[in-house]
Amino acid sequence: MGVANQYVLYNGLHHGDDWSPATYTDAFNKIQAFLTANVQ
After folding, report:
1. Alpha-carbon span 35 to 40, nearest angstrom
2. How far apart (Å, rounded) are the C-alpha atoms in residues 27 and 23?
């Protein structure tokens, strides 16, 4: 069984950094697309 994955690096941001609304939106859209494609 293969596992779909995508690694996204937001340059200059680390765990706990204050992300911008655009970064949150991008991350949310990627998660939503993944769930739509892979969850039944």
Report:
1. 9
2. 6
Q: What is the pLDDT of residues 1-15, one digit of tens each?
A: 677 788 888 888 887
d(CA 38, CA 13): 27
Residue pair 11/5 in contact (Cβ under 8 Å)? The answer is no
- Residue 37 is predicted with a pLDDT of 87
pTM of the model: 0.70
SS (H, E, C) the chain: CCCCCCCCCCCCCCCCCCCCHHHHHHHHHHHHHHHHHHCC
